[in-house]
Amino acid sequence: MAGGTYAALSGLQTRMEQLDRLAADIANAKTAGYKSERVTTNAAERPSFGKALQAAIDVTPGPGHLDFRPGSMEKTGRDLDFAIEGKGFFVVDTPQGARYTRNGNFQLAADGTVTTADGHPVQTANGPLKVARGASGPVSVSDDGTVSVGTQTVGKFRVVDFGDYSELQREELGRFRAPASAQPTDADVSVRSGVLEASNVSVVDRMVALTEVARGFEALQRGLNILSTELDGRAITELGRR
After folding, report:
1. How far apart are CA 122 and CA 98, in angstroms?
2. Angstrom distance (rounded) from CA 169 to CA 177
3. What is the pLDDT along the chain (242 residues), one digit of tens a residue?
Protein backbone atom coordinates (compact mmCIF):
# COMPACT_ATOMS: atom_id res chain seq x y z
CA MET A 1 0.00 0.00 0.00
CA ALA A 2 1.30 3.45 -0.84
CA GLY A 3 2.28 5.43 2.24
CA GLY A 4 0.12 8.37 1.14
CA THR A 5 -2.92 6.13 0.92
CA TYR A 6 -2.29 4.78 4.41
CA ALA A 7 -1.82 8.29 5.82
CA ALA A 8 -5.12 9.37 4.22
CA LEU A 9 -6.96 6.34 5.59
CA SER A 10 -5.60 6.83 9.11
CA GLY A 11 -6.51 10.51 8.85
CA LEU A 12 -10.08 9.59 7.90
CA GLN A 13 -10.33 7.23 10.88
CA THR A 14 -9.00 9.88 13.25
CA ARG A 15 -11.50 12.46 12.00
CA MET A 16 -14.35 9.98 12.41
CA GLU A 17 -13.36 9.65 16.07
CA GLN A 18 -13.24 13.44 16.36
CA LEU A 19 -16.73 13.67 14.84
CA ASP A 20 -17.97 11.13 17.41
CA ARG A 21 -16.53 13.19 20.29
CA LEU A 22 -17.99 16.43 18.95
CA ALA A 23 -21.37 14.76 18.45
CA ALA A 24 -21.24 13.55 22.09
CA ASP A 25 -20.54 17.11 23.28
CA ILE A 26 -23.46 18.51 21.28
CA ALA A 27 -25.79 15.72 22.46
CA ASN A 28 -24.91 16.56 26.09
CA ALA A 29 -25.25 20.33 25.77
CA LYS A 30 -28.25 20.10 28.12
CA THR A 31 -26.74 17.55 30.56
CA ALA A 32 -26.12 19.18 33.95
CA GLY A 33 -22.46 19.24 34.99
CA TYR A 34 -21.23 17.88 31.63
CA LYS A 35 -17.71 18.91 30.55
CA SER A 36 -16.69 19.33 26.92
CA GLU A 37 -13.54 17.83 25.41
CA ARG A 38 -10.93 19.29 23.06
CA VAL A 39 -9.30 16.90 20.61
CA THR A 40 -6.12 17.03 18.54
CA THR A 41 -4.26 14.81 16.08
CA ASN A 42 -0.71 13.50 16.03
CA ALA A 43 1.51 12.32 13.18
CA ALA A 44 3.30 9.23 14.45
CA GLU A 45 6.18 7.54 12.69
CA ARG A 46 5.88 3.75 12.56
CA PRO A 47 9.31 2.23 11.90
CA SER A 48 7.77 -1.26 11.80
CA PHE A 49 5.75 -0.21 8.72
CA GLY A 50 8.87 0.69 6.75
CA LYS A 51 8.99 -2.53 4.75
CA ALA A 52 5.33 -2.38 3.76
CA LEU A 53 4.81 1.34 3.11
CA GLN A 54 6.59 3.93 1.01
CA ALA A 55 6.22 6.40 3.89
CA ALA A 56 5.62 5.12 7.40
CA ILE A 57 3.52 7.99 8.80
CA ASP A 58 0.34 7.33 10.80
CA VAL A 59 -2.23 9.98 11.72
CA THR A 60 -3.50 9.20 15.23
CA PRO A 61 -5.90 10.84 17.67
CA GLY A 62 -4.08 13.21 20.01
CA PRO A 63 -4.74 13.22 23.74
CA GLY A 64 -8.17 14.53 24.62
CA HIS A 65 -8.31 17.54 26.91
CA LEU A 66 -11.36 17.79 29.15
CA ASP A 67 -12.50 21.34 29.81
CA PHE A 68 -13.31 21.54 33.54
CA ARG A 69 -14.37 25.16 33.53
CA PRO A 70 -17.68 25.49 35.43
CA GLY A 71 -20.96 25.88 33.62
CA SER A 72 -23.44 28.57 34.53
CA MET A 73 -25.69 28.13 37.58
CA GLU A 74 -29.31 27.65 36.58
CA LYS A 75 -32.08 27.93 39.14
CA THR A 76 -34.66 25.13 38.93
CA GLY A 77 -36.44 25.41 42.29
CA ARG A 78 -36.53 21.60 42.50
CA ASP A 79 -35.82 20.18 45.98
CA LEU A 80 -33.39 17.48 44.78
CA ASP A 81 -31.32 19.63 42.41
CA PHE A 82 -27.94 20.59 43.86
CA ALA A 83 -24.89 22.43 42.53
CA ILE A 84 -21.33 22.85 43.78
CA GLU A 85 -19.87 26.35 43.87
CA GLY A 86 -16.12 26.03 43.36
CA LYS A 87 -14.05 22.98 42.53
CA GLY A 88 -15.07 19.49 43.56
CA PHE A 89 -17.35 16.57 42.77
CA PHE A 90 -20.22 14.69 44.38
CA VAL A 91 -19.26 11.06 45.09
CA VAL A 92 -21.48 8.31 43.62
CA ASP A 93 -21.36 4.60 44.40
CA THR A 94 -21.62 2.41 41.28
CA PRO A 95 -21.10 -1.35 40.76
CA GLN A 96 -17.71 -0.42 39.24
CA GLY A 97 -16.69 1.59 42.30
CA ALA A 98 -16.73 5.26 43.25
CA ARG A 99 -17.47 7.75 40.51
CA TYR A 100 -17.41 11.55 40.60
CA THR A 101 -19.88 14.05 39.14
CA ARG A 102 -20.97 17.66 39.19
CA ASN A 103 -24.41 16.68 37.94
CA GLY A 104 -26.57 17.27 41.03
CA ASN A 105 -29.88 16.26 39.40
CA PHE A 106 -30.75 13.66 42.06
CA GLN A 107 -33.76 11.44 42.69
CA LEU A 108 -35.34 9.84 45.77
CA ALA A 109 -35.61 6.03 45.67
CA ALA A 110 -38.48 4.13 47.31
CA ASP A 111 -36.27 3.24 50.31
CA GLY A 112 -35.34 6.89 50.87
CA THR A 113 -31.89 6.72 49.23
CA VAL A 114 -30.85 9.80 47.27
CA THR A 115 -29.57 8.62 43.88
CA THR A 116 -28.40 9.85 40.51
CA ALA A 117 -30.89 9.86 37.63
CA ASP A 118 -29.80 6.32 36.72
CA GLY A 119 -30.15 4.98 40.27
CA HIS A 120 -26.66 5.09 41.81
CA PRO A 121 -26.54 6.14 45.51
CA VAL A 122 -25.06 9.53 46.31
CA GLN A 123 -22.50 9.29 49.10
CA THR A 124 -21.89 10.97 52.44
CA ALA A 125 -18.79 10.37 54.54
CA ASN A 126 -20.72 7.52 56.22
CA GLY A 127 -22.40 5.84 53.27
CA PRO A 128 -25.39 6.58 51.03
CA LEU A 129 -27.42 9.72 51.69
CA LYS A 130 -30.84 8.59 52.94
CA VAL A 131 -34.02 10.37 53.95
CA ALA A 132 -35.51 8.64 56.99
CA ARG A 133 -39.09 7.40 56.88
CA GLY A 134 -41.47 9.98 58.24
CA ALA A 135 -39.23 12.93 57.42
CA SER A 136 -41.28 15.67 55.81
CA GLY A 137 -40.93 19.26 54.84
CA PRO A 138 -38.89 21.22 52.34
CA VAL A 139 -35.39 20.00 51.43
CA SER A 140 -32.61 22.45 52.20
CA VAL A 141 -28.82 22.34 52.19
CA SER A 142 -26.34 24.41 54.14
CA ASP A 143 -23.18 25.78 52.56
CA ASP A 144 -21.08 22.85 53.79
CA GLY A 145 -23.38 20.32 52.08
CA THR A 146 -25.48 19.24 55.09
CA VAL A 147 -28.93 18.24 53.85
CA SER A 148 -32.07 18.72 55.93
CA VAL A 149 -35.69 17.71 55.36
CA GLY A 150 -37.88 20.06 57.34
CA THR A 151 -36.07 20.41 60.67
CA GLN A 152 -34.38 16.99 60.46
CA THR A 153 -30.75 16.65 59.31
CA VAL A 154 -30.41 13.60 57.05
CA GLY A 155 -26.73 13.71 56.10
CA LYS A 156 -23.92 15.66 54.50
CA PHE A 157 -22.80 15.30 50.90
CA ARG A 158 -19.31 13.95 50.46
CA VAL A 159 -17.65 16.44 48.10
CA VAL A 160 -14.07 15.74 46.99
CA ASP A 161 -11.48 17.23 44.69
CA PHE A 162 -8.32 16.08 42.86
CA GLY A 163 -4.93 17.70 42.50
CA ASP A 164 -4.60 16.69 38.84
CA TYR A 165 -7.74 16.62 36.69
CA SER A 166 -5.83 15.22 33.70
CA GLU A 167 -6.02 11.77 35.28
CA LEU A 168 -9.82 11.75 35.34
CA GLN A 169 -11.58 9.78 32.63
CA ARG A 170 -15.06 10.71 31.47
CA GLU A 171 -17.95 8.24 31.55
CA GLU A 172 -21.64 8.56 30.71
CA LEU A 173 -23.98 11.20 32.19
CA GLY A 174 -21.14 13.52 33.11
CA ARG A 175 -19.48 11.10 35.54
CA PHE A 176 -15.73 10.63 35.92
CA ARG A 177 -13.53 7.71 36.92
CA ALA A 178 -10.29 8.27 38.81
CA PRO A 179 -7.33 5.87 38.65
CA ALA A 180 -6.14 4.23 41.85
CA SER A 181 -3.15 6.58 41.88
CA ALA A 182 -5.43 9.66 42.16
CA GLN A 183 -6.52 10.01 45.75
CA PRO A 184 -9.46 12.41 46.30
CA THR A 185 -9.36 14.90 49.13
CA ASP A 186 -12.26 16.58 50.87
CA ALA A 187 -13.18 19.81 49.11
CA ASP A 188 -14.00 23.07 50.86
CA VAL A 189 -16.93 24.25 48.75
CA SER A 190 -20.44 25.58 48.98
CA VAL A 191 -23.42 23.46 47.93
CA ARG A 192 -26.63 25.11 46.74
CA SER A 193 -30.08 23.54 46.46
CA GLY A 194 -32.71 24.21 43.81
CA VAL A 195 -29.89 24.94 41.36
CA LEU A 196 -28.05 22.93 38.69
CA GLU A 197 -24.69 23.61 37.06
CA ALA A 198 -25.31 23.70 33.31
CA SER A 199 -23.12 21.92 30.79
CA ASN A 200 -20.12 24.02 29.73
CA VAL A 201 -20.57 23.00 26.08
CA SER A 202 -20.82 25.94 23.69
CA VAL A 203 -23.00 24.63 20.88
CA VAL A 204 -21.78 27.39 18.54
CA ASP A 205 -18.14 26.52 19.28
CA ARG A 206 -18.79 22.80 18.81
CA MET A 207 -20.64 23.40 15.51
CA VAL A 208 -17.68 25.42 14.19
CA ALA A 209 -15.31 22.59 15.19
CA LEU A 210 -17.67 20.05 13.62
CA THR A 211 -17.65 21.97 10.34
CA GLU A 212 -13.82 22.14 10.32
CA VAL A 213 -13.44 18.42 10.97
CA ALA A 214 -16.08 17.57 8.34
CA ARG A 215 -14.22 19.68 5.77
CA GLY A 216 -10.96 17.90 6.63
CA PHE A 217 -12.73 14.57 6.23
CA GLU A 218 -14.04 15.56 2.79
CA ALA A 219 -10.58 16.78 1.71
CA LEU A 220 -9.01 13.47 2.73
CA GLN A 221 -11.73 11.57 0.84
CA ARG A 222 -10.93 13.56 -2.31
CA GLY A 223 -7.20 12.95 -1.81
CA LEU A 224 -7.80 9.24 -1.38
CA ASN A 225 -9.83 9.15 -4.60
CA ILE A 226 -7.03 10.91 -6.48
CA LEU A 227 -4.43 8.47 -5.09
CA SER A 228 -6.61 5.49 -6.05
CA THR A 229 -7.12 6.86 -9.57
CA GLU A 230 -3.38 7.46 -9.94
CA LEU A 231 -2.62 3.94 -8.73
CA ASP A 232 -5.12 2.45 -11.18
CA GLY A 233 -3.55 4.50 -14.00
CA ARG A 234 -0.08 3.23 -13.18
CA ALA A 235 -1.29 -0.35 -13.03
CA ILE A 236 -2.95 -0.03 -16.46
CA THR A 237 0.20 1.55 -17.91
CA GLU A 238 2.43 -1.21 -16.54
CA LEU A 239 0.10 -3.94 -17.80
CA GLY A 240 0.01 -2.27 -21.23
CA ARG A 241 3.81 -2.49 -21.52
CA ARG A 242 3.84 -6.25 -20.97
Report:
1. 10
2. 5
3. 566 677 777 778 888 888 888 888 899 999 999 998 877 666 666 555 555 555 556 666 666 788 999 999 999 999 999 999 999 999 999 999 999 999 999 999 999 999 999 999 999 989 999 987 777 788 889 989 999 998 889 999 999 999 999 899 989 888 999 999 998 999 988 999 999 999 999 999 989 988 888 888 888 888 878 877 766 666 666 666 66
Which residue type sits at 227? L
∠ CA 15-17-22 to the nearest 5 degrees? Answer: 90
* Inter-CA distances, 198 with 8, 103, 104, 234, Å: 38, 8, 10, 57
Q: What is the dihedral of CA 146, 147, 149, 155, to 10 degrees?
A: -80
Query: Residue 201 — φ and ψ, nearest 5°?
Result: -75, 125
Full DSSP string of 96-140? TEEEEE--EE-EE-TTSBEE-TTSPBBEETTEE-BPPTT--S-EE
CA distances from 144 to 62, 141, 236 (A): 39, 8, 76
* Residue 115 to residue 51: CA distance in whole angstroms: 56
